[in-house]
C-alpha cells in the first residue's frame, strides 16, 4: 500500500456481539492505511471501545462513525473478528463481501448460507500461510501469538503458588513445573512467557521439527517414547493421527503429565477437530491444585477431556480453564494486529478501485469460500 488513492471501495466494521469478544476488526491506524489503498472506512458507534479505541479516534483517522444499519447498507465489504450470525447474514445485501475467519473447514452449512444470501465469503482460515505475500494477512499467527502469551499469564494467575523459585526467610519455594502440549505459534509464546516468569518448562509437539524450536527457547522437549516421525502433514503442519496412534499418544501423555503443576494445551490440526491429548484418567492423575489451560477448547471438543469454555474444578481439585478466547483479553494490541491482517486481505482484492477476484491467483483461489465467479467458458 503506497500513495493515497481516490477512495472507491467502502469497508465497514460492526460491534462484535459474541460472548467473550472484546476485539474489533478495524483500528484507527488501519483506517489511515486503508485510505491510502483507496478504501474508505465506516465503523459502528462504540465498536472499538472494548479495545480502547474511541469513536473520536476513528473519526480523526478519517472513518465515518455510524449506526450499524447504515454501515451494513453502505459497505461493499464487511470485516469481522467472529463470523457474522445467521440474523446478521440475513440482513446483509447481496453482493457484499464478508471477510473473516468463517469456519469453512468445519461448517459447510454456514458457507452455504453465505452463498444463498448472495454474499462473497473470504475465509481467512484458508490463507496459504506459506506464501510470502500472505504473511501480513496471517490472522492465525497474530492471534495465536497473543493467545499463547496470555495463556501462560492466566495459568500463573490461577495457580496457588509461584512460577519462579522463591527464597524467603520462611523457606525456599520450588519453581512451578509447566508442560506445554502443542508447540506451534501459541505454544512457543506460552513457553517463552512461562520461562520469563521463572517456571521450569517442558513441551511436546507431534511435529519432529518442533524439538529444536522448543529447545532453542530453553525448554525441555518431552519425549513420549513414540515414533511419530511421519507426524508432519502438508506445508509443515501436523497431520491427524490414526485412532491407534492417538490412543498411544494419550496413554503416554496421561502418564507423563502426572508430575506437572500446570499444563497449557494449544494443539490443533488445520481443518479438523482438535486432537484429544489428555484424557480424564490423565486429569485425575494430576495433583490437587494443578491448573490446566486448554486453548483448543471449543464446541468440537478440546485437547483435554471434559474441558469446556470457562473454568471448572474437578473433584480431585484440578482447575481446568477452557480458554479459546484469550486473544480477546489483550484486545488493544490483538485488535491492531488482526485489523492489519484483515485490511491486507481486503486490499489484496482491490483492483482498479473495485473489489475483484482473479481465480488464477493462488491467494484468491484459496480465500474465496462463497460467491466464486463462474469459470470462464472454454474456447
Ligand atoms: P496450529 O495452530 O494448527 O497447531 C498448533 C500446534 O499443535 C502445531 O505445532 C501442531 O504440530 C500441534 N499438534 C497438532 N496435533 C498434535 C498432536 N496430536 N500432538 C501434539 N501436538 C499436536 O499450528 P500453528 O501453531 O499455526 O503452526 C504450526 C506450524 O506451522 C509451525 O511450525 C509454524 O512455524 C508453521 N507456520 C508456518 C507459516 C509460514 O510458512 N509462513 C505460518 C504459520 C505457521
CATH architecture verdict of the largest domain: 3-Layer(aba) Sandwich
Uncertain regions spanning at least 5 consecutive residues: none
Assign the structural class, choosing from mainly alpha, mainly beta, alpha/beta, alpha+beta, or little secondary structure.
alpha/beta
CA distance, first residue to last residue = 36 Å
Can you summarize the main beta sheet? 7 strands, mixed
Instruction: Please identify the oligomeric state.
Output: single chain
**In which order are the strands of the major sheet placed?**
3-2-1-4-5-6-18
CATH class of the largest domain: Alpha Beta
- Helical content band: 25-40%
Cα shape: globular
Write down the overall mean pLDDT.
94
- CATH fold annotation of the largest domain: Rossmann fold
CATH homologous superfamily identity of the largest domain: NAD(P)-binding Rossmann-like Domain
- Count of individual helical segments: 12
Structure report:
It comes from Bifidobacterium scardovii. The chain is α/β, with parallel strands linked by helices and 379 residues long. It contains twelve helices and 18 strands. It has two domains: 9-126 and 331-367, NAD(P)-binding Rossmann-like Domain (Rossmann fold, 3-Layer(aba) Sandwich); 146-324, NAD(P)-binding Rossmann-like Domain (Rossmann fold). It has helices spanning 28-36, 55-61, 68-74, 86-91, 108-116, 139-158, 185-196, 210-216, 243-257, 280-284, 331-349, 362-367; strands at residues 9-13, 39-44, 64-66, 77-82, 97-101, 120-123, 166-168, 171-173, 177-181, 200-204, 220-221, 262-265, 291-294, 310-313, 319-322, 350-351, 354-355, 368-370. The chain has a seven-stranded mixed beta sheet. It has a seven-stranded mixed beta sheet with strand order 11-10-9-12-13-15-14, with helices on one face. A two-stranded antiparallel ribbon has the order 7-8. Helix 1 (28-36) packs parallel to helix 11 (331-349) and helix 6 packs antiparallel against helix 11. It is globular. Nicotinamide-adenine-dinucleotide (NAD) is lined by residues 129-130, 138, 140-141, 144, 181-187, 205-207, 210, 236-238, 241, 249, 266-270, 275, 277.
Amino acid at each position: 500500500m503506497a500513495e493515497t488513492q481516490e477512495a472507491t471501495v467502502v469497508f465497514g466494521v460492526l460491534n462484535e456481539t459474541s460472548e467473550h469478544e472484546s476485539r474489533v476488526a478495524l483500528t484507527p491506524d488501519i483506517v489511515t492505511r486503508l485510505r491510502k489503498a483507496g478504501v474508505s472506512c465506516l465503523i459502528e458507534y462504540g465498536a472499538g471501545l472494548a479495545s480502547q479505541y474511541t469513536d473520536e479516534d476513528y473519526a480523526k483517522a478519517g472513518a465515518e462513525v455510524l449506526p450499524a444499519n447504515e454501515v451494513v447498507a453502505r459497505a461493499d465489504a464487511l470485516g469481522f473478528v467472529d463470523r457474522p450470525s445467521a440474523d446478521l447474514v440475513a440482513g446483509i445485501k447481496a453482493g457484499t463481501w464478508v471477510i473473516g475467519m468463517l469456519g469453512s473447514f468445519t461448517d459447510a452449512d454456514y458457507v452455504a448460507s453465505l452463498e444463498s444470501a448472495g454474499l462473497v465469503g473470504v475465509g481467512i482460515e484458508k490463507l496459504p500461510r506459506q506464501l510470502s505475500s500472505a504473511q501480513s494477512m496471517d490472522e492465525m499467527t497474530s492471534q495465536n501469538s497473543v493467545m499463547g502469551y496470555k495463556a501462560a499469564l492466566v495459568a500463573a494467575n490461577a495457580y496457588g503458588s509461584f512460577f519462579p523459585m522463591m527464597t524467603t526467610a520462611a523457606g525456599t519455594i520450588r519453581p512451578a513445573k509447566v508442560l506445554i502440549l502443542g508447540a506451534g505459534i501459541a505454544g512457543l509464546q506460552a513457553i517463552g512467557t512461562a520461562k520469563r516468569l521463572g517456571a521450569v518448562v517442558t513441551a511436546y509437539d507431534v511435529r519432529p521439527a518442533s524439538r529444536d524450536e522448543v529447545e532453542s527457547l530453553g525448554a525441555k522437549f518431552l519425549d513420549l517414547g513414540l515414533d511419530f516421525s511421519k507426524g508432519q502433514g502438508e506445508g509443515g503442519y501436523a497431520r491427524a493421527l490414526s485412532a491407534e496412534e492417538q490412543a498411544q499418544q494419550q496413554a503416554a501423555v496421561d502418564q507423563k503429565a502426572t508430575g506437572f503443576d500446570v499444563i497449557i494445551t494449544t494443539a490443533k490440526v488445520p481443518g479438523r477437530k482438535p486432537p484429544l491429548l489428555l484424557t480424564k484418567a490423565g486429569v485425575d492423575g494430576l495433583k490437587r491444585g494443578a491448573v490446566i489451560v486448554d486453548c483448543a477448547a471449543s464446541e468440537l471438543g478440546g485437547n483435554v477431556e471434559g474441558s469446556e469454555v470457562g473454568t471448572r474444578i474437578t473433584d480431585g481439585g484440578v482447575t481446568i480453564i477452557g480458554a479459546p478466547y484469550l486473544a480477546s483479553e489483550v484486545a488493544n494490541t490483538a485488535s491492531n494486529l488482526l485489523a492489519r491482517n484483515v485490511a491486507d486481505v481486503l486490499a489484496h482484492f482491490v483492483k482498479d478501485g473495485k473489489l475483484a477476484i482473479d481465480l488464477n491467483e493462488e491467494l484468491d483461489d484459496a480465500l474465496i469460500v462463497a460467491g466464486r465467479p463462474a469459470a470462464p467458458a472454454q474456447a
